[in-house]
Specification:
The protein is an alpha+beta fold and about 120 residues long. The chain contains four helices and six strands, in the order αβαβαββββα. The radius of gyration is 16 Å and the shape is globular.
C-alpha cells in the first residue's frame, strides 16, 4: 500500500496535497522499512498509542513476534483541507480495508475543484 502511495506522491502533490505516512515504529525501524521498500515519501515515526487513540485509530496487539514487537495502529487515512479541517477520513480495524488511492486522489480533486463541503456534519438528533 505504501509502495502504491509512494508512486502517486507526485500526483497528490500536483493536486495540492502533501503526503505523509506515520508509523508507531521507532525511527530506525521505520527508516529500515522505507529503505527495504525503496520508499521516498515522508514517513513520521514514534506515534504513541495515546496519539493513535486521539486520532480514533484502532490499536492492535501483534499476533506473533514475526508481525511486530509492540501494539500498532490499524490503517487510517486523513485528508486535511487548507483550513486545517479533516475533509476526508477513512479508519479501518483491519489491514485489508483501505481506500483505493487513485479513487481517493480523484475524490480530492473533485472536492477541491467544486468547493465540496465537509460531509457528515449533521448536528440534529
Amino acid at each position: 500500500y505504501l509502495s502504491t502511495l509512494d508512486g502517486l506522491v507526485a500526483d497528490f502533490n500536483k493536486a495540492g496535497v502533501d503526503v505523509v505516512a506515520v508509523s508507531g515504529d521507532p525511527k530506525d525501524k521505520a527508516r529500515e522499512m522505507a529503505q527495504e521498500q525503496d520508499l521516498s515519501l515522508t514517513i513520521g515515526y514514534d506515534m504513541s498509542i495515546a496519539q493513535m487513540r486521539e486520532l480514533g485509530l484502532y490499536v492492535s496487539d501483534p499476533r506473533s513476534p514475526q508481525e511486530t514487537d509492540q501494539p500498532f495502529s490499524e490503517p487510517g487515512v486523513f485528508v486535511v483541507n487548507g483550513d486545517g479541517n479533516i475533509q476526508i477520513l477513512d479508519i479501518s480495524n483491519a489491514p485489508f480495508a483501505r481506500p483505493d488511492l487513485e479513487g481517493l486522489l480523484n475524490g480530492i480533486k473533485f472536492v477541491r475543484d467544486n468547493d465540496y463541503p465537509i460531509r457528515g456534519t449533521h448536528a440534529g438528533a
